[in-house]
Amino acid sequence: MIAELFRKVLGRGRNVTKPKRIIHSVKSHHIRREDISSCALRVTESLQKAGFEAFVVGGAVRDLLIGRAPKDFDVATNATPDQVKKVIRRSRIIGRRFQIVHALCNDEVVEVSTFRALQAAPEDDQAADEHGRLIRDNVFGSQEEDALRRDFTVNALFYDPNKEEVWDYFDGLGDIRAKRLRMIGEPAQRYREDPVRMLRAVRFAAKLGFTIDKAARKPILELADLLSNVPSARLFDEMLKLLLSGHSVECLRQLRAEGLHHGLLPLLDVVLDEPDGARFVELALTNTDRRIAEDKPISPGFLFATLLWHQVRLGAARIESKGELPTPALYQAMDEVLDAQKEKLAIPRRFDAVMKEIWSMQPRFLQRAGQRPYRLLEHPRFRAAFDFFVLRAASGEVEEDIARWWEDFQIAEDTERELMLVVEDKPKRKRRRGPRRKKPASTDDAAYSEKLSSEITHRKGDHDE
Ligand code: ATP
Ligand code: MG
Prior knowledge:
Layout: H1 2-10, E1 22-24, H2 26-29, H3 38-49, E2 54-57, H4 59-66, E3 74-77, H5 81-87, E4 91-94, E5 100-105, E6 108-114, E7 116-117, E8 139-140, H6 143-148, E9 157-160, E10 165-168, H7 172-177, E11 180-181, H8 187-193, H9 196-208, E12 211-212, H10 214-223, H11 232-243, H12 248-257, H13 266-273, H14 275-293, H15 300-321, H16 326-344, H17 352-361, H18 372-377, H19 382-394, H20 400-411, H21 414-420, H22 441-458
Parallel strand pairs: 3-6, 11-12
Antiparallel strand pairs: 1-10, 2-3, 2-9, 4-5, 5-6, 7-8, 9-10
The structure holds adenosine-5'-triphosphate and magnesium ion.
């Protein structure tokens, strides 16, 4: 029975072997109980005391073996969600389709999932869509089956904190030592089941500095188009993980190298295929990676604003060239770009407000006369808009002197600030008969820009990140 399952799950490729479990003692893996968070320790201990099996799994074990601090801890067990709930007092069951349990300790949450079997079978037409993508994955199983349904060998390691043992079904430890990402089973079939695994391969390779093993790499180019069948919300989540991995520059480089940036993510098409915009985006991503390394917060809204900025600029220039004033042109372009993104990448609407705010404030940094700079300083989104302006200056899009001026203006005393203000060129008045002329368009446009950008801020709606 189980042999049949392996065949179904893993396919028939050369790469397929029946799992052979190896149990590594602390001598060969060096993970110590103390490396595990107190919450994960408490959860595994309670479950084991109640007679169940319980292991720390997935990314945490992998990261500890590489010598990195895990982001979070997941636990896998043979207890059902209801049984887990009974054993762990402070916990709640999450999800409907496949239930998991969140165990809560102080400010930490540990995700506890029951060993899951994989009913993978493209023959089972209810479990997969017409491309072989799994839509059902919700049956409890043994630990062996649970290992089998995971993606890469390095992600399928189980750590028992009590015995300080690592249980390894696919020589994941060997792959960690060789810095290699090897797919469990037949790669093409595993990508068909879940095309997001291609993006995960790139993300892990970039983040861990691993190479994607030849067999796992080969089918990617051919199967890249399958990503277009993945629901856009899931793609968005994965995209965000990529960008916030702390290695976004490397991730995007590899996405391009694997041919994964085409078609599926319009955002990346534009960003990676336009050399003009590339410098700005590269600076923005380098900046993001650095902030993550320094443990500073990142605003996804800001990040998306940087990725789409080049498109907004191009759009605004096009509209202006047809005779529109700069401000309305900018606003039209912002809307066009955001609408175009909605279709595939589905950047959720809640990010629109912050992106628009940042973009619409940009022209206001060029206004350094009168009361305008003071009003801009007071804007609740000043910091983000200023950081954005600094990136534009660093990429050569606007004068660095102006960015420096704002840097100084922020910290200057009142009297100093007054001296810093730029004297506005008064438009020369010509004597004319007849009715008074309107103010020159540029002054009008500056006022209009200020008015519209503060309207965005005060408009009711979601203001996220
Ligand atoms: P990260 O450091 O990004 O959290 P991770 O390996 O913990 O890395 P998660 O997305 O948190 O990744 O998933 C936890 C575990 O679940 C993985 O290690 C892997 O074993 C399994 N897993 C997650 N997504 C998939 C998938 N699409 N296909 C197969 N297994 C998966
Ligand atoms: Mg994880």
